[in-house]
Amino acid sequence: MKLKGIFISVLATLSIGLLLSFRFQNPVAEEILKSIPIVDSFKVIDSDPFFQSTYEVWLRVPLDHNNPNSPKFPLRAYYSHRSFTRPMVVVIDGYTMYTSKANELTKILGANQLTIEHRFFSNSRPKDSLPWQYLNIRQAAADAHMVISAFKKHYHNKWVSTGISKSGQATIFHRRFYPNDVDVSVPYVAPLNFSSEDKRVYDFLSKVGTPECRKKIKDFQKALFKNKNEILPMLENLAKKNRWEFKMGIDRAYDLSVLEYEFSFWQWGSSCTEIPNANSDAKELFEHWADVNPFTFFEKKSTEKVLPFFYQAMTEIGMYGYNIEPFREYLPDKKNITFEFTLPDSVNVKFDSTAMLDIYQWVRDSGNYMLYIYGGNDAWTSTSVVPGNKTNAVKMVCPGGSHSTRIKSFPPELQDSIYHVLEKWVGVEIN
């Protein structure tokens, strides 16, 4: 009996595994894809069981949407069908697409899902080189508009756009330029920065958490600087083991990573109780530092993968900087540090606040049916959207939440408030 039970259990496990990885073809979905002129190719891929089928789709979009004769380049999307009677959630990515799985909002609404990769990330780019002048929020929003328009004629229920972090920004930007593409938008943890060094971040970091925790963070950072001679060899060994390269040199990467620690600590919701005392030994200091603030943020290959983000941050969508005042005695810098150093020497940038000020005015005066989700302790919340009282937008801030804040992160009573808004706006019953 035991052997039989084991055999049945193994068989069941294998069946579940096959189910989870089975590629479900859908003739109706494929007919839709064949009917869309901008679709270049598609293939069925491993499907989330939440959907009937999922396809990786390659589309052709113009490099310059303002020029009818503009060259085309490939743009990738994931198209997941569940039911024609359900809403469509469109994930407007701000980076490369990391998953084709159903996201939180899609599951809550029992929806179909269309995920659109951001231009110039991964292989969604011109083949030979990047024409940086076409990497801006208007062109990216026009990409999303073109893809949504192609699919919208086939799905007649409510459309909801969403995205997380930079993808949340892209969700807001698209909605500003194409307000009728979707009925509702739910940007998660999306900052609205007004410069390449938005100084509201410094003000936020001076007040978040408790005074005791903030002091402990500063003392820890100073301990890393004071013990640099001992700790730097540990970073060098780790870099050698992982084959990391640092364009700015490992010595400078060390300093930048010390400065990044504070922002990263609050961004990802680390615990103050886990910060070592400033007089701890070098090994303990290093291990905690590595846990909270991955050094790959400054690593050459990692930076190159998200180079379009840094370009946009330094030209249009803004960023934070590092306040060097508390650490002047340890640094050669005479002014605060911003992220221009991430860009190739051949790329010249100048920040123009016009685009973000326009977005600010829109969310204040016209951004209707926008549900903003934020974490209360997330460093990016320092530059969060402030909806105007002329709109019916809703901003929900999860107490103590980090950049990982999702609807499920909220206390039950606040989750109920979010569900009530979604039910009212999308017209679905949420269980």
TrEMBL record:
The keyword Transmembrane helix does not apply. GO terms for biological process: proteolysis. The keyword Signal applies. GO terms for molecular function: dipeptidyl-peptidase activity. InterPro entries: AB_hydrolase_fold, Peptidase_S37. It comes from Tenuifilum thalassicum. The lineage of its organism: Bacteria, Pseudomonadati, Bacteroidota, Bacteroidia, Bacteroidales. This is Peptidase. Pfam families: Peptidase_S37. Keywords: Hydrolase, Protease, Signal.
